[in-house]
């Protein structure tokens, strides 16, 4: 294991668990509850990163009067802002709040726009279109250096610049776990409302929802906007954590496929399942990441271990679909007050 | 190779890929998200034969064809058939093909490392253009890809319209339950469509390195053009896939080329944006595609514009 300490592994597990939990929760709203196969989840995460790398950076450039292209100027922004934050931690807090709000707003807007072309079509068209839009915009932000610096990427200020270096990781882990917990309770609140039941109804049978006078297209637009807004927050947090934004960090495998894997592994449409799926996935992933050189040496692999990771997680997904489609924890019916009463009456009558 | 030739070569290959995607969509009701990686699989088969036996990619087409059909049948028999038997929904089947895409990407990536260390030359990216020669003033790949597509489409048409199996195949595409009553085994027709789809993709993949550089992840971005081509053609029509392949292939290459003469060569990177725009416009104005819905989907007769 060499220089990697146990403490570091524990912190990366916490950090990745929090980041992935936010994305899985967002996907659980759209896919788990609403049945919308959003194969373009990565786009919303990328938009969160763009909110930091392209928008917030440019706002700071305006305020501080920095000129030049974004790749170079973001470096300036970073060093100037770090100096300011190290003197006044409140600036760091303000920056954090600005980033979260902006990412959520941009995410919602992108989500609503990107489902528009396919919102009234069947789920296969939905999946195809969302994946296509996500792939193309990923490619554009990688090829075009003027958005988030293309293949060079851009720098991001450190919101914890006031803290000593060794505090940074623990502070971030705390902040991420806190944010993920808040989002967990918010999504739980939203999904326990009649809206959550409406989503499940839509997942089970669109025609019934239509027959009850609800507009399926409108529900889908709202749902993907909500989910994308949450996923964008994860993208923004990830960028703040890594201190830079580069398009390659927001690919389809990491931010679309893995979230689907976590949701399906744990059990779609159920919050405990999503938490269980995320923690199991993150444990496997961090173990693979930590011991990648040992694995490579042990089996004398003539290739990078990332390919092995893809094979393992791809096969895991297929095994889940084939042998445990309900996931680790099975979905339970939503017990509203009238439902509980009806259930009690029914059990009494039975006995 | 002239610009128009290049555009036609690309369109020819896109037709093969869209045709395969459409075939399996009609019979199984699932868009195959691994179709792009099926092509890259073909690219690596022909690269392997070239590196290890010196066989020119043009001559290895029959072998690539067979390898591709094995991959296609394997996909159906090992992954999709068991899922369909358990009553999996379209979304679950789509996720399964997405997972297969990732497994294949991992296998191809790992294999490229192994092939690189066996043949002593890196295989994580490669191109075949230096192997090509002009024939009577036209580029070899243009002649080959056109020949291949004429041959394949005419044999497909003969198969579909002149043989008993073709009639069974069309019947099971048009009305699966009625076809089953008439004694047609849907398992055969589905397995056949997957075999054909895999081999069409593998052939397209073996010729693609003559036009662009291939890396293990090439499939992830080609899939956008394949989907665009199939959807422009209506996703449920074989003729639509042919038309859609040319519409997307030609506009992707020629529109970006036209724009590059005005805005500079930087614009050439954005060819896929053109495909995406056409796909989006198509879904907004005519989701049933250019030729309209001709053949109903096999699994659950559901219209595109649900």
From TrEMBL, chain A:
Membrane topology: Multi-pass membrane protein
Principal subcellular localization: membrane
Keywords: Cell membrane, Membrane, Transmembrane, Transmembrane helix
CDD domains per record: TM_PBP1_LivM_like (cd06581)
InterPro entries: ABC_transp_permease, LivM-like
Entry-linked PANTHER family: BRANCHED-CHAIN AMINO ACID TRANSPORT PERMEASE PROTEIN LIVM-RELATED, HIGH-AFFINITY BRANCHED-CHAIN AMINO ACID TRANSPORT SYSTEM PERMEASE
Name of the protein in question: Branched-chain amino acid ABC transporter permease
Taxonomic source organism: Candidatus Syntropharchaeum butanivorans
TrEMBL record, chain B:
GO molecular-function terms, A-Z: transmembrane transporter activity
Pfam families per the UniProt record, alphabetical: BPD_transp_2 (PF02653)
UniProt keyword terms in alphabetical order: Amino-acid transport, Cell membrane, Membrane, Transmembrane, Transmembrane helix, Transport
TM region(s), chain numbering: 6-26, 58-79, 91-115, 135-161, 191-208, 220-247, 254-270, 276-293
GO cellular component terms, A-Z: plasma membrane
Key word Cell membrane present: yes
Main location: membrane
GO terms for biological process, alphabetical: amino acid transport
InterPro entries per UniProt: ABC_transp_permease, BCAA_transport_permease
Topology versus the membrane: Multi-pass membrane protein
Subcellular localization, as worded in the UniProt entry: Cell membrane
Protein family membership: Belongs to the binding-protein-dependent transport system permease family. LivHM subfamily.
Protein name: Branched-chain amino acid ABC transporter permease
């Amino acid at each position: 294991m060499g220089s990697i300490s146990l403490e570091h592994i524990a912190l990366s597990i916490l950090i990745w668990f929090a980041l992935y939990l936010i994305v899985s929760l967002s996907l659980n709203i759209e896919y788990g509850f609403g049945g919308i196969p959003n194969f373009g989840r990565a786009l919303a995460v990328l938009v969160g990163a763009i909110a930091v790398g392209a928008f917030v950076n440019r706002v700071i450039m305006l305020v501080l009067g920095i000129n030049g292209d974004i790749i170079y100027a973001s470096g300036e922004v970073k060093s100037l802002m770090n100096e300011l934050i190290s003197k006044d931690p409140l600036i760091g807090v303000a920056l954090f709040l600005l980033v979260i709000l902006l990412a959520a707003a941009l995410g919602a807007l992108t989500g609503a726009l990107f489902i528009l072309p396919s919102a009234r079509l069947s789920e296969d068209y939905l999946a195809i279109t969302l994946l296509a839009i996500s792939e193309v915009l990923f490619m554009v932000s990688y090829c075009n250096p003027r958005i988030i610096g293309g293949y060079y990427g851009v720098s991001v200020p450190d919101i914890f610049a006031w803290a000593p270096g060794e505090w940074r990781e623990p502070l971030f882990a705390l902040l991420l776990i806190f944010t993920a917990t808040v989002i967990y309770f918010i999504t739980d609140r939203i999904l326990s409302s009649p809206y959550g039941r409406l989503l499940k109804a839509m997942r089970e049978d669109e025609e019934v929802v239509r027959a009850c006078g609800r507009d399926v297209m409108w529900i889908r637009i709202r749902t993907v906007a909500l989910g994308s807004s949450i996923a964008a927050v994860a993208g923004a947090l990830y960028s703040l954590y890594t201190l830079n934004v580069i398009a390659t960090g927001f690919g389809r495998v990491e931010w679309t496929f893995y979230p689907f894997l976590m949701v399906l592994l744990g059990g779609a449409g159920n919050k405990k399942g999503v938490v269980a799926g995320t923690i199991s996935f993150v444990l496997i992933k961090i173990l693979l990441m930590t011991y990648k050189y040992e694995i490579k040496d042990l089996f004398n692999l003539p290739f990078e271990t990332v390919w092995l990771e893809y094979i393992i997680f791809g096969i895991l997904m297929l095994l889940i679909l084939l042998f445990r489609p309900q996931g680790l924890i099975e979905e339970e019916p939503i017990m509203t007050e009238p439902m509980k009463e009806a259930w009690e009456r029914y059990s009494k009558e039975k006995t | 190779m002239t610009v128009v030739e290049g555009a036609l070569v690309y369109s020819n290959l896109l037709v093969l890929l869209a045709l395969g995607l459409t075939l399996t969509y009609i019979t199984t009701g699932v868009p195959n998200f691994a179709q792009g990686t099926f092509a890259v699989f073909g690219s690596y088969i022909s690269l392997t034969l070239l590196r290890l036996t010196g066989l020119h990619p043009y001559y290895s087409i029959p072998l690539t064809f067979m390898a591709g059909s094995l991959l296609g049948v394997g996909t159906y028999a090992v992954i999709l058939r068991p899922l369909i038997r358990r009553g999996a929904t379209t979304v679950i089947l789509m996720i399964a093909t997405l997972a297969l895409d990732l497994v294949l990407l991992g296998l191809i990536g790992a294999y490229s490392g192994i092939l690189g260390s066996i043949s002593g030359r890196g295989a994580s990216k490669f191109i075949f253009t230096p192997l090509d020669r002009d024939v009577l003033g036209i580029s070899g790949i243009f002649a080959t890809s056109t020949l291949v597509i004429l041959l394949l489409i005419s044999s497909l048409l003969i198969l579909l319209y002149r043989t008993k199996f073709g009639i069974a195949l069309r019947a099971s595409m048009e009305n699966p339950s009625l076809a089953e009553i008439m004694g047609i085994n849907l398992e055969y027709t589905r397995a056949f469509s997957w075999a054909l789809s895999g081999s069409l993709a593998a052939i397209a993949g073996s010729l693609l390195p003559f036009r662009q550089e291939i890396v293990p992840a090439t499939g992830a971005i080609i899939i956008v053009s394949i989907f665009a081509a199939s959807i422009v053609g209506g996703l449920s029509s074989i003729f639509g896939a042919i038309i859609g392949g040319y519409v997307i292939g030609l506009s992707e290459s020629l529109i970006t080329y036209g724009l590059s003469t005005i805005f500079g060569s930087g614009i050439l990177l954005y060819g896929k944006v053109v495909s995406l725009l056409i796909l989006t416009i198509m879904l907004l104005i005519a989701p049933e595609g250019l030729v309209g819905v001709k053949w109903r989907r096999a699994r659950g007769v559901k219209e595109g514009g649900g």
